[in-house]
Amino acid sequence: MSYNLLKGKKGIIFGALDEKSIAWRTALRCHEEGAELVLSNAPVALRMGEINKLAEIVKAPVIPADVTNMDDLKKLFEESMKHFNGGVDFILHSIGMGLNVRKGKKYTELDYGFNQKTFDISSVSLHKVLRTAWDMDAINEGGSVIALTYIAAQRVFPDYSEMADAKALLESIVRSFGYHYAVRKKVRINSISQSPTRTTAGGGIKGFDGFINFAEKMSPLGNATGDECADYCVSLFSDLTKMVTMQNLFHDGGFSTTGITPGVVEQMEK
Ligand SMILES: NC(=O)c1ccc[n+]([C@@H]2O[C@H](COP(=O)([O-])OP(=O)(O)OC[C@H]3O[C@@H](n4cnc5c(N)ncnc54)[C@H](O)[C@@H]3O)[C@@H](O)[C@H]2O)c1
């Protein structure tokens, strides 16, 4: 169902890789709610070609940008502003990559070169996106920016490894840049801490099936899906949440504040 919550709004969505991606689900919902979009992803991801299917549905141009590259980001904002004939109202940062996790390196054996790249892609890239927008004055008054994160930033999930540190840094950038952009232009910046979700990035975590089933049993409402996350993004991009900023918002069916559930106890007794 559409409520026209984003009618007249223009947004950039980073990170739609395939139809399971949280960014893909969010682009579909934003389009349904009346937003005009630009889609962006790393050049290597665009070569897969999947994103063109989404672009056709949501009638959006696809503009490549490696989020670690400031020249790419500048070009992306220039082209987006040209396309929109003005600034953007919202941005979704739905990007993550754990190089050590990918290479099978344990937390106690990190390769620091990979680690730096992980932080650059998964965390500092949010600063780079915001800094580029700031320098170009690309976000309209009252705009909204969301980054996707995970509860491993607050509590230890050993197999999440270096991505836990990356998410902690990401959430800190949300608060720090959130302060400056609020004062300058009433722009809101928040992170959504999402339930485990079956996507390419999610599936990269060791033992993901056990992990997602455990979270399901530990959440009074169950795990939040990618589509439900997309709904939440729409609400935060809309004018109904103008005073919410610098927050890490749990979208996890109650997982983050639940100690134990009968479902988990039952499993332990088997
Ligand atoms: N899936 C989960 O369980 C889960 C849970 C909580 C938070 N998240 C977060 O949600 C976000 C989206 O992940 P997803 O689960 O939809 O997986 P996904 O694999 O579909 O999306 C990750 C995206 O990051 C992009 N990316 C990687 N390196 C890039 C670069 N250098 N430049 C530009 N883009 C780059 C990829 O191309 C891909 O589109 C991530 O931040 C992830 O950590 C996921």
Bound molecules: nicotinamide-adenine-dinucleotide
Number of domains: 1
Low-confidence stretches: none
Number of helical segments with 4 or more residues: 11
Evaluate the radius of gyration: 18 Å
**Biggest sheet: strand arrangement:** 2-1-3-4-5-6
Tell me the strand percentage band: 5-15%
Describe the structure in brief.
This protein has helices spanning 22-32, 43-46, 51-58, 70-84, 99-102, 112-136, 162-185, 200-203, 208-218, 226-237, 262-269; strands spanning 10-14, 36-40, 88-93, 139-149, 188-194, 248-251. By secondary structure, it is α/β, with parallel strands linked by helices.
Describe the structure.
- The chain is α/β, with parallel strands linked by helices and 270 residues long.
- Strands 2-1-3-4-5-6 form a six-stranded parallel beta sheet, with helices on both faces.
- It has one domain: 3-Layer(aba) Sandwich (Rossmann fold), CATH 3.40.50.
- α1 packs parallel to α3 and α6 (112-136) packs parallel to α7 (162-185).
- It has helices at residues 22-32, 43-46, 51-58, 70-84, 99-102, 112-136, 162-185, 200-203, 208-218, 226-237, 262-269; strands at 10-14, 36-40, 88-93, 139-149, 188-194, 248-251.
- The chain has eleven helices and six strands.
- β1 (10-14), α1 (22-32) and β2 (36-40) form a beta-alpha-beta unit.
- Bound molecules: nicotinamide-adenine-dinucleotide.
- The site of nicotinamide-adenine-dinucleotide has 26 residues, from α1, β4 and α8.
